[in-house]
């Protein structure tokens, strides 16, 4: 696991964001075991208290769960996973709109452009 | 908790520290930051009672430093205090003879962690490895609080990374760590709390995550505000 941290957002928020992206993209599978708090701190070179905070927040948000003394795992809750995808896509679209808004392009042209580029990038990646 | 309360230190007429107050908690890494000569090392010496303070009070877990509480706390100076011709094993033996709180198991673990060989002489080691031996000799003590004076200064980047790794490991877990530094870049994500010193006084004291969360500022941002005015 590797995260390039920026210095101005809380580290725990950045760790959560990383997990959200990995879960939404399916790189972390439902029910998959995740590193302990200590291992996470060590892998990411972050303060152990911060790793603890990130896990606590993710646990409360239902993104991960812990049964007894077992290692924590990624949630299997379909509803949480769907919401997560919606949330991340929503955020990405917001960012995109904010970036293209100043250009003032007609909606139809914009959608055509998105379709073209999306298909092209898909082709390149597969 | 280490509590430094309204501490002043004068050398003759020169005031080195003036009304310094801050706390350092157990289970947290507190970082004293300031340019050289600002009084960081004097504070550490004050906590260890190596230098008497002119006025003010320093408490460890609510009590003044006594012979007993002295065993709860270790000071790791910025340069190794062992003789250069000593082998690492001899330095370890020296510490073991001297301190009741020496933990052999942890010392062995640290040797592995830092990839150091016991039979090597201190004089034959690189600067980075000498710094690691210095750190090992303090970290292997079973103490609640560790004071480290400039653990990152003057050594290569890979040694700095290895030393930073110690802070995220169980070797430091649950202890209270106070480190002094004038270079923060490598370790911004490692520390819990920052105490900024300028001209013998404390100008800011904050938790790094809170600062990022509430004000969206990095440690360096705050330092820039303080030191560049």
Detailed description of the structure:
The complex is a heterodimer of chains A (126) and B (229). Chain A is mostly helical and 126 residues long. Chain A has two domains: 11-76, Orthogonal Bundle (Arc Repressor Mutant, subunit A), CATH 1.10.10; 79-125. In chain A, 61% of the residues lie in helices and 3% in strands. Chain A has helices at residues 11-24, 37-44, 48-60, 78-100, 107-125; strands at residues 64-65, 73-74. In chain A, strands 1-2 form a two-stranded antiparallel ribbon. The longest helix of chain A has 23 residues, at 78-100. Chain B contains eight helices and ten strands. The two termini of chain B are 32 Å apart. In chain B, helix 4 (104-114) packs antiparallel against helix 5 and helix 5 (127-139) packs parallel to helix 6 (157-167). With 229 residues, chain B is α/β, with parallel strands linked by helices. Chain B has a single domain (2-228), classed as Rossmann fold, CATH 3.40.50.300. In chain B, 36% of the residues are buried. The A-B interface holds A 5, 7-13, 38, 41-42, 44-50, 53 and B 27-29, 164-165, 167-170, 173, 188-192, 209, 212-213, 216-221. Chain B: Residues 2-224 form the ABC transporter domain.
In a nutshell, what does this entry contain?
The complex is a heterodimer of chains A (126) and B (229). Chain A has 5 helices and 2 strands, in the order αααββαα. Chain A is mostly helical.
The largest contact between protein chains, plus residue counts on each side, is:
A-B, 19 and 24 residues
Strands ordered across the widest β-sheet of chain A: 1-2
Q: How does CATH name the architecture of the largest domain in chain A?
A: Orthogonal Bundle
What string, H for helix and E for strand, traces the elements of chain A in order? HHHEEHH
State the major sheet of chain B: 6 strands, mixed
Q: How many beta-strand elements of chain A?
A: 2
Domain ABC transporter (chain B): 2-224
Organism (chain B): Oceanobacillus luteolus
Pfam families (chain B): ABC_tran
Keywords (chain B): ATP-binding, Nucleotide-binding, Transport
